[in-house]
Every structure is written in structure tokens, then in C-alpha cells.
Amino acid sequence: MSQSASQSRLVGMSIRDKKIAAGFLAVSAAVVGGWAEFAPHSFYDSFPGFGRHWVSGAGAYDEHLIRDVGGLYLALLVITVWARLRAQPEMLRMIGAGWLVFNVAHLAFHAGNLDGFSTGDKVGQLVALAVVALAAIVLLLPERART
What is the rounded CA–CA span in Å between residue 76 and residue 102? Predict the structure, then answer.
């Protein structure tokens, strides 16, 4: 086996890995979107759960805004599930790009607005959003060459 053939198998992500990343993003979208859309006040008071209050710590309650966020996440859920089921490289890259654009802006906002949160909540928010960004990046990586 030539060196370039063995290297080509090591470069990029498999479709299976990309489907796992898309599945993670879909679950994330379902939890956040469903909660925000169908129980907006609970989402405001209790997100992400476990005694944490990341949304209420960021400002006043706005049902319209929270339901819009819920709708956005549910839309991401639909297109992410569709792309995962089709598992075509171009569709997975498109979903990754969409998630990354949204999540980089989301991460940047939270990174610049951490006042009033405990150290654990600061770290938790940034890590959670960074993991979502990494999953989106996985979808953007080139596909592993088939042998």
C-alpha cells in the first residue's frame, strides 16, 4: 500500500461519524426547541435544568423571543434530521455550516455577557456552546476517502 493511499484513509471524517454529530445536534435542537416553544416560562426559569438558570440570568422574560428561539431550534431539528437520514456529504456540510453560523454568534454573545453568573455557569455555558460548534465543524470536514 502506498503512503498516499494510507494517508487518504486517515484524512477526513466518515459518514458514520458525521451522522453521529448530526444526531447529537438534532437531540440538542429537540430539547432546546421543544422546551422553549412549548413551555417558554419554564425554559426561561429553568434552562438548562439541574438547578441552573442561564436564560433568566441574562435578562427579563420575553415570551415572544423565547418562542422564536424555540421555533429556530425546531427548524434546525427538521433540517438536521433530514440531512442525517439522507446522509449525503453536501447536505451534511450545509447543515454544519448553518449550525456553525448560528452557534458562533450565539457563543460570541454568551462569551461577552457572563457577568452575574457563577464560575461553574460561565464554564458550563461556554463548554456547551463550544461542543455544539465542534459538532457543526465535524459536519464541515472533508469525507474520508473510501478504499
Answer: 10
Summarised one tens digit per residue, pLDDT across range 41-64 is 999 999 998 888 899 988 899 999
CB of 91 closer than 8 Å to CB of 78: no
> Identity (one letter) of the amino acid at 7?
Q
Tell me if 55 sits within 8 A of 43, measured CB to CB.
yes
The DSSP secondary structure of 6-49, one letter per residue, reads HHHHHSSB-HHHHHHHHHHHHHHHHHHHHHHHH-HHHHHHHTEE
- The C-alpha atoms of residue 27 and residue 20 are separated, in whole angstroms, by 11
pLDDT exceeds cutoff 90 at 140: yes
81 Cα distance to chain centroid: 13
pLDDT tens-digit map of 127-137: 999 999 999 99
d(CA 129, CA 142): 23
Q: What percent of the chain has pLDDT over 70?
A: 90
Backbone angles phi, psi at 132, to 5 degrees: -65, -45
Q: Please state the domain extents for the chain.
A: 11-140
Adjacent-strand bridge partners of 48: 53
Distance in angstroms (rounded) separating the CA atoms of residues 138 and 37: 28
